[in-house]
Amino acid sequence: xxxxxxxxxxxxxxxxxxxxxxxxxxxxxxxxxxxxxxxxxxxxxxxxxxxxxxxxxxxxxxxxxxxxxxxxxxxxxxxxxxxxxxxxxxxxxxxxxxxxxxxxxxxxxxxxxxxxxxxxxxxxxxxxxxxxxxxxxxxxxxxxxxxxxxxxxxxxxxxxxxxxxxxxxxxxxxxxxxxxxxxxxxxxxxxxxxxxxxxxxxxxxxxxxxxxxxxxxxxxxxxxxxxxxxxxxxxxxxxxxxxxxxxxxxxxxxxxxxxxxxxxxxxxxxxxxxxxxxxxxxxxxxxxxxxxxxxxxxxxxxxxxxxxxxxxxxxxx
Length: 317
Prior knowledge:
CATH topology of the largest domain: Nucleotidyltransferase, domain 5
CATH superfamily of the largest domain: ATPase, nucleotide binding domain
Structural class: alpha/beta
Order of helices and strands: EEEHHEEEHEHEEEHHHHEHEH
Largest sheet: 5 strands, mixed
Helix content: 25-40%
Distance between the termini: 17 Å
Shape: globular
């Protein structure tokens, strides 16, 4: 029996899934990410997990058809990572490192948002479409573009970085990238909290959140659902920034579908409504552009996408 492994490497956890060669999820688990020694222990840990699982399930390493890894940063065509801050990697190639650990293994690596997009395209909300973009709303804002079943990474691995499209919203603070007014500064979970604190600090609003020393994007969304004017204004600003960014992307590559995922998207329809309102305000060339919907695969999108990448690399898909 041939198997494939999808691996989603994050700064806190490494998620791993074992799949049949037909794409059926057989098992999944997670281990903590060891960031010591400049992240050099991460790939040996991935290799150890694959060897251990294979041994425990009477699977020969020769029956491992491929491994697809998601990396939280830009990845070039051969798996090379120039810099990945979350994993402490610089000038590092996880593909060649895994092949050193397991000689002869077929492996590939991609940006984690791109892999999640691949998963949603083939097995989730994007199934049956010709083109789509996944937008992940978490600590930051990421994106992955799929056209005709293929990831569009760009010449430098940064295609789909919608978090760093700038908006018309007046802003004075710098984004982590060094620019000012990025979508990431508004539509991320951290961005939502930042904007909500500004609104509450203005003295113009009453809100249940004024009584909290600390609150999250989830708290803001729940208050907005309950009709809190400050929280509704926060969503209008933050998701409006994303809607504006999506309209710019639509003019660039005209996707059939936008899929919104990540932790913030768990708020559901209220998020989509706020995005659509601003998207439509900035989109003019045709009457209707891309449909906007919620992701459906949740935390499994990355490992599913990894298994698909592995299958493609092994010539199975």
